[in-house]
Input
Amino acid sequence: MNIYDKAHEFASYLKDCEEVVKFREVSKKVNENEQNKKMLNDLRSIQFKAYSEQIEKGEISSDTKEKLEGLGAVISMNPAISEYVQAEYKFGLLWEDIMKILHDAVGIDMDFSQNK
Output
């Protein structure tokens, strides 16, 4: 068996993994409702703005914080969006762990910073 066969085997396993199945299901639910899609897009937009402000200025503006908190409160009362955000988070953790395992297996340190 070659590495590509193993990659396809892993992909097949990943496709049926609990976190992936759940994320796929809740994504479909959100995508079927225009209001939920808009709300999720608004959340992504505000999250990106907050991230950009944090990187550029070292802090998030009070206006952006208020928008994030306000939208967060609205989203927490929307079961479909809340379920999506939780499933996305769990999938993200799984994906991070998989990437770390693969990175460690390659054994190449790609951090070329001088602060080592």
The two ends are 39 Å apart (CA to CA). The chain has a mean pLDDT of 90. The chain is about 80% helix and 0% strand.
